[in-house]
Amino acid sequence: MTRTDTRVLLAFLCFALAYFLLVWNGASPYVYVSGDTANTLSVLAAMAHPGAFAGDPVFGDPANYAFYRIVHIPLTRWLAGFTGDYGTAYCLLLAPVLFLHLAGYYLLGRLLFPRPLHAALFSLLALVPISLGMGEYWGAHRDAQARLTFSALLPWLLAGAWLWRARPLLWPVLLLGAGALTYVHSLSAPVWGLALWLGMWGFLPARWSPWRKLAVMAATGAVFVLVMAPFALRFFAGNSAAFHGDRAELLEAMRVRLRPGSVHVWDNVREFFTPGLVALLAAGAAAVALLRAAGGARREGARLIGAWAAGVVGVSVGLTWLLGLRHADGGVPSLDFFLVRGLRYLIPLALLALVWALVVWAEGRRAPAGAAGRGPLGRRGAVLAVLLAAVVVGGFGDQLWRRTAELRHGHFFSLSPERRDYVAALDAVRQRTAPGAKVLVLGADELPVRYYALHPLVYSWKDGGFVVFGDKDGMIAWWRAYQEHEAIRRVPDPTARLRRWEEFSRTRGGTVLLLSRDLPEARALDGDVRVLYANDHFVLAQLSSGAGSGPGPGSGPGTGSGTGPADRPIPREG
Length: 574
Prior knowledge:
Layout: H1 3-24, H2 35-48, H3 72-83, H4 86-92, H5 94-112, H6 116-125, E1 130-131, E2 137-138, H7 146-163, H8 171-180, H9 189-201, H10 210-238, H11 247-258, H12 265-272, H13 275-294, H14 296-324, H15 346-364, H16 378-403, H17 405-408, H18 417-432, E3 438-442, H19 448-451, H20 463-467, H21 472-489, H22 494-506, E4 510-516, E5 529-534, E6 538-543
C-alpha cells in the first residue's frame, strides 16, 4: 500500500465519521431510524423480551419473525450492552459500514485502474445515493441497513473474484463468502451467488475436459447452497402457513401496501427502471463494449462484468418469473417478487465499466512526457479532481443538506425540543403504563414504542410490509385495520375523530394513546381518557375500560378541571 493509498483511506475514514456524526447528532437514546431498520430493531426487541409483546399484531407471535436471523441482530444486541438502547447501537454501525463500502470499492478500483485517483473516483461514485423504483435505493443511507451492509461487503468479494479468476481451486472460497452474506441480506445473496458462479465459467482452463469443468462448477455452486441452506430452511419453515382468506382481497392489500406492480414481475421491472437508471445502464453497456475492444485484461474485465450482470438479471427477473408461475393460476404470491430489487446491483457494475472506460480513454489521449500540465496532478489529474469534487457536492449535496438540518437550527450535537419531548413521552410509556399495554400512536413515528419503550402497538403502516413475508392471514387483518385507519383520518370533526380512534384502539385491545399536540384530537381529550403525561409536543393518555361509550364531550375532563374539552389545558411535565 502506497502513501497515497493511506491518505485516501484516511480521507474515507473521516468522511464516514463525519456522515455518522451528522446522522447521530448526539442523540441519546437514538429513536430516529428508518422504517426498515425499526422493523429489524423490533425483531431484536421481541427476541430479547418475548413476554413484552403479547397481543401485538405482528410481534405477539414468534413465528412471524423467527426466520429473521441476520447478523445485525446479535451485533446490535451486543453493542446495546454499551449504549443502553438498540437505536444508538444500530446507529454506531453506520460509520464502519460506510468506511467498508468506500475502502472496498477503492480496493477493487486499485486492482483495475492505474491511478489511485481513478479508484477514489469510482469508490465515491459507488456511494452516491440514487433513488430507484419500488421505493428502492442505492448508495449512502442514514442507517446501516442490511442492503447497505451487503453493498459494502460486495466489492471485497468482487476483488477476490478478479484476483482469483484463473485459480479455480480458490473459487469455493468466494462462493462460501457469498453464501455467508445470506445472513447479512438474504435477498441479495442469491443474486450474487449466481452472478459470481456465472463469471467463473468463462475462466475455466481450456485444457480441462467438459466433465471436469462441470464437476468443478457443480462443486463450487454446492458450497454456496450448503452455506445458505440453514437460513433458507428456517425461512421457508417459518413462512409456509396456509392462507384461508380471499385471494382477491390479499392481492389488493399487497398492491396498496407494496405498490401497484409488486405482485407481477414485469410490472415490477417496469417500475424499477427509472429513466435515469436506463440512461446509466445504457452508458454502462457502451463502456463494456469499449473495454472488450481494448483487449487484454480489459477484455477479461468486460467478460466478468457481463457475466455478473447476467447473473443479477437472471435471479432478479428470470428466477422471479419462474417462481411466480407457481401462483399464476390462482396461488398465493410469496416473497418471490422481492427478488426483483436485486436489479439495484446493476448500478455498481455500470459505474465500474464507465470509470474503466474513462481510464482507457484518458490513457489513449495521454500527452507526451512533460506536456501533461503543471503541478503534481497534471492536466488530466486536475480534470479528474474537479470531477471528483463535483461528485461529492452533486451526489451527496442533498443528503448532507438534510443531515445538517439540526445543526442549522442551532442544535449542535443535541436534540431539537420536539425530539427531546418525544423521547420523554416514550420514557413515560415505559414508566407510567402497565407492561404489555397496547399503544396507539397518532402524529408521530410509532415503531420506537416497540424497540425502545418495549410495548406492543395497536397498528403500524410498516406491519403490512412485514407480515406479507409469510403471515397472509395477518396481512388481511392488517389490510382491514388500514382501511378503518384511513377512514378515521378522513373524519372532519376532531372530537368525532377522537371517538373513532378510541374505538379503533379499544376493539384491538389498546389501552393507551400517544398523540402529537399538533393534532386537533389532542385538544379534544375528555372524560374517556386520563392524561398520564404531557409536554409541549406530546400527550400520553390512558383509555378507560369504556372508551368509545362513555360521557360525551361536554361532560368535563378526566383530570377534574371545569372547562370544555377543546379548551382544557393539559398539564405539562418536563
